[in-house]
What we know:
By secondary structure, the chain is mostly helical. It contains seven helices and no strands. The longest helix is centred in the N-terminal third of the chain and has 37 residues, at 43-79.
Amino acid sequence: xxxxxxxxxxxxxxxxxFAESSxxxxxxxxxxxxxxxxxxxxxxxxxxxxSLSSVxxxxxxxxxxxxxxxxxxxWVIDAYGLEQAFASFQSTFQTYGFWIIxxxxxxxxxxxLVTIASGASQLNLAMFILASLISRTIRFMMLAxxxxxxxxxxxxxxxxxxxxxTIISIxxxxxxxxxxxxxx
Length: 184
């Protein structure tokens, strides 16, 4: 919690948000929440940093799918065991691309799958960026709003139950992968 206010914390948050959108498994929520709790006056600035970095990382993921699907993109999909899900996902992507991006950006389902699939499917880049901006901004602003609103109570709760929070967060990621595999 002490490191959440350090000068380098915003850069690390931006880096994690960027990387999570294309290849990194840990979502930036793990950093955003303690940073908002530590400095509530900057809650929405931090959420904006997280949102913009995530969209920039999403553009990088799009580029992986667009230019390097047969090599790097396939490696990322294989690393997460999402081969079948990706094939199914890609087939419906051309029809519902905007809405898939807008909705999946709000869920624990891996956003990196969406970004790479968007590039591999050659979805309209402007539509991809718009849908990503909407979904990622809503997601991170909602998260920041919740912890901004509850302030000191959230801080006490977070510090008291940090292990539980970590376990629930990891389970949410795992459940997101299972939901994705079940749906596709």
